[in-house]
Amino acid sequence: MSSLDHFRLMAPYNAWMNARVYDAAERLTADDLARDRGAFFGSILGTLNHLAAADLIWLGRLAAHPPLSGRIELAGLPQPTGIRFIVSDELAGLRPIRERIDRVIVGFVDGLTEADLVGTLAYRRVDGTAHRKLLSSVLSHVFNHQTHHRGQVTTLLSQAGIDVGVTDLLALIPDID
């Protein structure tokens, strides 16, 4: 599988899993969602906000990259100033933003070429540190980051008595005839 095909698998998987997590989270009360459960970002809602904020930060960096200019539409979306930025203080407000972020990611990845993936992305971290990284490596990080924190959320949901169900990427990989 090429890197491009891999990302074209990961983008819809990412959206599918986010929808499953949000469906599960909607079964909890606002208090349960906001309860500090000792995770990196405290609560289920805090972790979901972190994921949305981080994706928006990365999409902003990608949108500002000259070879990718015009391929990512972020108008009307929040512009986080850090990884603890609160995109929405309630799940009902966060979900439509998450869904739009996922549509943007899928559309962006669908428009990429192999040549794009070997390009260098120059960006600054929130703390101002400058970096230059291979675009394909950055995209790997973005999807890995989602998986990492979604795993935390599914654990927190499980501890709250909510089963997210199947979470494996394998569920979206077609059988070979």
From TrEMBL:
Signal peptide annotation: none
Residues noted as binding a divalent metal cation in the record, renumbered to the chain: H50, H145, H149
Keyword Cell cycle: no
Domain of life: Bacteria
SUPFAM superfamilies: DinB/YfiT-like putative metalloenzymes
Keyword check for Metal-binding: yes
Record key words, sorted: Metal-binding
GO molecular function: metal ion binding
Family, similarity comment: Belongs to the DinB family.
Identification of the protein by name: Damage-inducible protein DinB
Organism for this UniProt entry: Pleomorphomonas diazotrophica
